[in-house]
Write a structure and sequence with these properties.
The strands form two sheets. The chain has a four-stranded antiparallel β-sheet, with no helix packed on it. The protein has a three-stranded antiparallel β-sheet with strand order 1-2-5, with no helix packed on it. The chain starts with 5 loop residues before the first strand and ends with a strand. The chain has a single domain, classed as Macroglobulin (MG2) domain (Immunoglobulin-like, Sandwich), CATH 2.60.40.1930. The chain contains no helices and seven strands. It is mainly beta.
Length: 89
């Protein structure tokens, strides 16, 4: 079981079509993982649920989005972290 909350860098990054985002949860938590565009507008919610401790991975499909810089944010009551991803078509 993970002992800490953690958000990993997506891979691949930059990516052409799909990228994986891995994160770990240290205790039962309401978890939200959101993608934002460069202006800070929410473009996709990948996770929005109660999760048990563990390591998780979700795929972001950028096929319907334009090339550019995006941000993904993991939001948990005790932890919030944001990282950058780059979509190149």
């Amino acid at each position: 079981m993970p002992r800490e909350f953690r958000l990993y860098q997506n891979y691949p990054n930059p990516f052409n079509h799909k990228s994986n985002i891995k994160y770990q949860i240290a205790k039962n938590s309401e978890v939200k993982l959101v993608i934002y565009d460069i202006r800070g507008c929410e473009v996709s919610t990948l996770v929005n649920e109660q999760l048990q401790p563990g390591t998780y991975e979700v795929e972001f499909d950028g096929v319907n989005y334009t090339s550019g810089i995006y941000f993904y944010k993991l939001i948990i009551t005790e932890y919030t972290k944001t990282k950058k991803l780059i979509l190149l078509k």
